[in-house]
Amino acid sequence: MQITRFGHAAILVEAADTRLLIDPGVFSPDETFALEGLDAIVVTHQHPDHLDQDRATGLLERNPDAVLICDPETASQVGGGWTSNTDGTETVVKGLTIRGVGARHAVILPEIPRIANVGVLVSAADEPVLFHPGDTYEYAPEGVDVLALPLSAPWAKLSETVEFVQRVSPTSLIPIHDRTVSDAAYGIYWGQLTAHSGVEDARLLGQTDASAF
Length: 213
Description:
Blueprint: E1 2-5, E2 11-15, E3 18-22, E4 40-43, H1 53-62, E5 67-70, H2 72-78, E6 82-84, E7 90-93, E8 96-101, E9 119-123, E10 130-132, E11 146-150, H3 158-168, E12 172-176, H4 183-196, E13 201-202, E14 210-212
Parallel strand pairs: 3-4, 4-5, 5-6, 10-11, 11-12, 12-13
Antiparallel strand pairs: 1-2, 1-14, 2-3, 7-8, 8-9, 9-10
């Protein structure tokens, strides 16, 4: 499995001769929306840092055969062509199985209504299992090999981040959802995480870096 970051929460997963893009949002570089040859595009929830609806139009035009998967609320907003993903729903795209995990976004403030958020487990024969949770630490599925970890958010604090990683207990992790951290402070977050999460294979990938698992 090859994972390439495309800024903030967006990652390209390449495994089992299948190319899957997750959460192309407003913090993703333009190169994200120029990708071609995608077999599937997944959106975990409607927030613009996970789906840039303006630039996504061109992405969909470049990938007319891609399977489009998103949470039920986003599906109702973006119109036809998108398949509604829910907790436990499995979608097979070529060599990959994409399973929905969870239902709700994390609490930002009590006054802000919680929206839908459906993370995804991505698996294939003889490949590691990847978990991208979207915007929540609430759900911790079993059997995760690689965790795409939201490192910072208005709804999170570092102690919760560490506790989430400990519950998931992945073999490896990479950071996502980290454009909310300044360059000056990034080492504080990453240092505390790696010191206390218990995950030895924590790979500090930059916004456009790639790694094989």
